[in-house]
Amino acid sequence: MKFFLDTANLEEIRTVAAWGILDGVTTNPSLVSKESRPFKDLIAEISRIVPGPISVECVSTEAGAIIGEARELARIAANVVIKIPVGIEGLKATQSLARDGVKVNMTLVFSAGQALLAAKAGAAFVSSFIGRLDDLSQDGMELIEEIAAIYGNYDYATEIIVASIRHPRHVIEAALIGAHIATIPFAVMEKLVQHPLTDIGIAKFLKDWGKVKT
Ligand code: E4P
Predict the structure, then answer these.
(1) How far apart are CA 206 and CA 43, in angstroms?
(2) Dihedral, CA atoms, 95, 100, 101, 104, nearest 10 degrees?
(3) Does residue 6 have its Cβ closer than 6 Å to ligand 1?
(4) CB-based contact 64:72 (threshold 8 Å)
(5) Model confidence over 189-206: pLDDT tens digits?
(6) Is 151 exposed, middle or buried (CB count within 10 Å of its CB: 0-12, 13-18, 19+)?
(7) Which of 1, 108, 115, 148 has the most beta carbons within 10 angstroms of its beta carbon?
(8) DSSP for 11-56?
(9) Whose CA is nearest to atom 9 of ligand 1?
(10) Domains identified in the chain and CATH numbers
(11) pLDDT-derived band of residue 73, with 50, 70 and 90 as boundaries?
């Protein structure tokens, strides 16, 4: 399973990149708005830190404008992936960009039907927001199961990004289903590493090591 970091914060990205387990980064307009650095500079810097895919979202709403914006964003760095919200204009833009070899991450996907359309349009990635579905008392992970089954039935190459992750259990369940990618907020990434029994175990081993004659 590939791990992306769901943030535009350079310190968080540098920290997790140093752990040696980071495969990519996803940003969105809300995440970018929290950072003070100019937008394109910020994306260029992220692209230098992480060699894997860096998703950057278009804010245009009409296909022609989305395509123009996407081409401009793609020029920032070779590993930039264009995030486009699912919808009729987004699908038109995606199929055109995909035909020209531009990688698209179709985002804000909340149904298996949307995910199927994204794959048919040629999106390289589909981002399904499970936490936001859970927030509405729906089962976000059920959506991942459906998408995985449908893509498997037809051998779509579109990679499933499990997004809007709220806790480590989301990552585990996504991995059990076989989703290709989890895009994980920094706080959840930290929680994935930690376990109180590990801390207690280390403290005990170190204490006992103090009694060993060396
Ligand atoms: C995905 O690419 C999005 O950036 C993200 O996962 C959205 O998560 P949220 O529901 O926590 O905003």
Answers:
(1) 43
(2) -30
(3) yes
(4) no
(5) 999 999 999 999 999 999
(6) buried
(7) 115
(8) HHHHHHHHHT---EEE--HHHHHT--S-HHHHHHHHHHH--S-EEE
(9) 164
(10) 2-209 (3.20.20.70)
(11) very high
Residue 27 CA: nearest ligand 1 atom is 4
Q: Strand, helix or coil at 206?
A: helix
Which of the listed residues 5, 25, 28 should we mutate to test ligand 1's pocket, taking the one with most ligand atoms within 8 A of CB?
A: 28
> Could you tell which of 106, 110, 129 is best to mutate to test the pocket of ligand 1, judged by most ligand atoms within 8 Å of the CB?
129
- Report whether 59 contacts 83 (CB < 8 A): no
- Give pLDDT, residue 22: 98
Residue of 2, 40, 83, 103 with catalytic role: 83
